[in-house]
Protein: Heterokaryon incompatibility domain-containing protein
Organism: Fusarium oxysporum f. sp. narcissi
Amino acid sequence: MLQPRLEAVENSLHTDFQHHSTFSSFKQAVEGGCFICTKLWDSVEDASIDGWSNEPDEKSSMLEECSIGFETSTSSEKVLQLAYEWYEARSDSHESCQRLRSSPKFAPSRLIDISSGDDWKLCLYPRDILDPPDYMTLSYRWAKSPSVVLLNSNLEDFRRGAPISRLLKTFREAITVARRLSIKYLWIDSLCIIQDSTEDWARESLQMHQVYANSACTISVTASEGPDEGLFRKAP
C-alpha cells in the first residue's frame, strides 16, 4: 500500500521531501503496510551508528537510490507482450470468458483475414458454420468517414485482398495488435458492413451486440478523436 501523501511527490521536481511530519504517523504507516515507509523503517533499524553525521541539521540518506524503467510508447514489445499474457490468461482466470468459450460460438457475416503479410481480405461466413474462428473487434470513434470502406462496388475486390498500407492508422495498428495476440481475424464495422446498403446495415446492426459479445477481445480506442490518429501513444 502506498500512502496518499505520495500524490504530492509525483508533481515535485525536488529530490527530497517530507513524507511524515511526526514519528507517530510514520510508525502508523509502517504498521499499516506502506511499502516506502516500511523500507525506510528497515533501513534505519539496520543502519550503523557510524553513519550519522556530527552535524544535526545535515541531510543524509540511508537508502540506495534506485530507478524503475518504463516504456516510452504503448507500441513497445514489452507492452505488447504484457497484453499477450493478459489475453492468454483470460480463459483461466476470467469466469465470464470461460462461460463464453464453452457456449456455442458465433460468427459474424464477414471478417477480415489478416493472416497474410502485407494484405488483408474479406471473408464471408454462413450463419450455420460449425466452427467459426476466434476474432477481435475494434471500437473507435468515426469523427469522419474512413477513407477505405466496404461498398457494393468493391466487395469482390476486398474478397480477393487489399494492401494493409491503404488502411487508416488505427486500423493498421489494430492489425498489429491482433497479430501480436495470434488472432487471425478482425471485425471493423466500416470494412465488414456494406456502407452504401441500407439493407445490409439493417441486417448487420441487429447482430452487432453479438459480434462484440462473442469476440475474443475488443480494442477500445479511447484516446483518439478519429480512425486516423492510431492506437499507440508515447509517454509525456
Summary: Confidence is low (pLDDT under 50) at residues 1-10. Residues 77-220 form one domain. The two ends are 26 Å apart (CA to CA).
